[in-house]
Design goal:
With 292 residues, the chain is an alpha/beta fold. The protein has helices at residues 3-15, 18-25, 29-43, 59-84, 103-116, 129-137, 196-201, 203-207, 223-231, 277-289; strands spanning 48-51, 54-57, 90-97, 119-126, 143-146, 155-159, 164-171, 191-194, 215-219, 236-240, 252-256, 262-263, 266-270. The strands form three sheets. Strands 7, 8, 9, 10, 11 and 12 form a six-stranded mixed beta sheet that branches. Strands 4-3-5-13-6 form a five-stranded mixed beta sheet, sandwiched between helices. Helix 1 crosses helix 4 (59-84). It holds the Pfam family LysR_substrate. Keywords: DNA-binding, Transcription, Transcription regulation.
Length: 292
Amino acid sequence: MEIRVLRYFVEAARQASITRAAEALHVSQPTLSKQLKGLENEIGKQLFQRDNYGIKLTTAGTLMRKRAEDILAMVDKTSAEFSAMTTLTGGNLYIGCAESQSIRYLAASVSTFRQRYPDLRFHLVSGDTELVTDKLDQGLADLAIIAEPPRLDHYTYLEIPGADTWGVVMRQEDPLSQKEVITPTDLKHQAIICSEQAIKNDIPRWAGDEVFNLNLIGTTNLVFNGSVFVRSGLGKLLSFKGLCDTSATSGLTFRPLSPQLKTKMYIIWKKYQVFSPIAERFVEQLQVDFAN
């Protein structure tokens, strides 16, 4: 299975058209068709359904696209790492990030680091702990920032100073916005939007048995998207403070939970991980920055 053919396949899947993909790849249409047919023969599965309107992925094709994209991302990352070994003025740093105000500490470290390595390029992927640790475990991220205590048998970690404060994002005209703090009883049978991770791990610590009275109508792994749904009147969002616009003109407001609920953030990387030169030096700086 050649890397070049995987790139052909991914581009054809993106374009949903052999003609457009061939143009984007600067190859002839017969050449591209032959390469894709050869890939199907190699794995013994039909990857595309073809009709007069173009092509679309089969079930096997959808799986193949996911695997091909992961393989190509790893190939590109490896190539960039070896290229960076010829110079230490920069390189690529891949970081998976949970949403948090605590990211500002990471940003400060990156800013300081770029003064020493001005050609550094950083690539952030945002999501919940499961998503960013998957990237880390697959070798697609050098580091991850997560919102729950790390597995000590699997990761080395640094604790980020401070903690994020939980609260409720709601419309400004919501009756609950008149309260200074929000209790579990206040949210009884209210329409709630929350991340799957939080509803499993964080909110039960706060609500206790009252968690079973919460009417979870939807989940989100990005607070901004959840806040758009709140603004549309779909429900209230349980979130960290400061992750979406709750200014006077935003139409939204934030009220902290009572009893207070906070979550610590951690920077993690795999034990015995082999870093690229630039990532290794960045980890060394983080260990200095967060030593205290």
